[in-house]
Amino acid sequence: MIHQPFHSVRPSGRSFQNQVVIITGASSGIGEELAYQLAVQQARLVLASPETEKLEAVASRCRERGGEALAVPADVSDRHQCQQLIQQTIVTYGCIDTLINNAGITMYSTVEEIEDIHLLEHLMQINYLGSAYCTYYALPFLKQTGGRVAAVASVAALNGVPTRSGYVASKHAMMGFFDSLRIELMNSGVSVTVLFPDIVATGMHSHVIGADGQPHDISHTVNYQKAMTTQVCVAQMLRAIASRRRQLMMSNRAQFGRWVKLLIPALTDRIAKRAVTATAAQNQELKKQCLA
Q1: Catalytic residue at 167?
Q2: 21: burial class by Cβ within 10 Å (0-12, 13-18, 19+)?
Q3: Residue 289 buriedness (CB in 10 A; 0-12 / 13-18 / 19+)
Q4: Which domains does the chain have, with CATH numbers?
């Protein structure tokens, strides 16, 4: 992730000042930027990620920006580590005001090309179950504070996307879980916000899980000219969480796609297929140019 001056994006007010905020997946990408923008608001942060060194570096930068920051190495696919994350937050700060379920990974492979089907389980464990585990253990404390829960889903949760089947399924499950939870928490004082970012320039596509189960760099397949910057993305997210919005669609394409799917569902399939086919053709052309 490219580190830009932390004053480059208009702050989202001081809605999180002195608030205890947990962020999963906080060592890079959207999670890292969430930490920086919340630190400017002087939040009391709990940052979680299995990447210990990167996490400590982010925590240090947050302190430089005026926030408190506790780094907790945690893999959200392990429910015991999720429970320990919540317990350590309570031991340190005594309460939880906001939980942002951001940790996630993606994939790049058709279903028939997958070499180890465990890949689908791995995606579900991190993207869906990790957020469910953290929320489950945090919920009693969030009800005490009338807190906020946020889930970073994806526009991919709304439609089928070829070569992303396991990722789409996990984000769709995440969306269903939090939509159901919102109804359960009516009149409890706890809000649930589901966020649907589109393509964001986070660097996530440089370590995508491929058919062999190993990380691959597919950043050349993404048109970053149309991508939202991480700073702008996070500023929008924080405003939605602060105002306790039900959900936030973060691109016109997402809004348009929802209506097209309702009215002409087969068209969304053809659009997705064409997009992936065009990308594959571009990749083949790039390979030819490199070999020439």
Answers
A1: yes
A2: buried
A3: exposed
A4: 20-251 (3.40.50.720)
- The two three-digit tokens of residue 209, written as one number: 């899980």
Q: Which of helix, strand or coil describes residue 150? A: strand
Q: How big is the CA angle at 240 (ends 61 and 208), to the nearest 5 degrees? A: 60
20 three-class SS: strand
Least confident stretch, 56-65, 198-207, 271-280: 271-280
Find out whether 47 and 159 touch, Cβ atoms under 8 Å: no
CB 40 within 8 A of CB 46: no
The label of the residue with tokens 């951001």 reads 102
Measured between its terminal Cα atoms, the distance across the chain in Å is: 32
188 touches 144 (CB < 8 A): no
Q: Are strands 148-152 and 191-196 parallel, antiparallel or unpaired?
A: parallel
Name 49's bridge partners: 73
Which residue of the set 93, 128, 133, 167 is catalytic? 167
CB count within 10 Å of CB 122 equals 18
- Locate the DSSP E strands across 10-136: 20-24, 44-49, 68-73, 98-101, 107-108
pTM: 0.84
| Residue 193 β-bridge partners | 150
Q: What is the structure's pLDDT at 31?
A: 96
Q: Helix H segments across 20-145?
A: 29-40, 52-64, 79-93, 118-123, 130-145
Which two tokens mark 174? 């995440």
Q: Name the strand (E) or helix (H) holding 288.
A: helix 265-291
Strand segments (E) across the chain: 20-24, 44-49, 68-73, 98-101, 107-108, 148-152, 191-196, 208-210, 215-216, 247-249
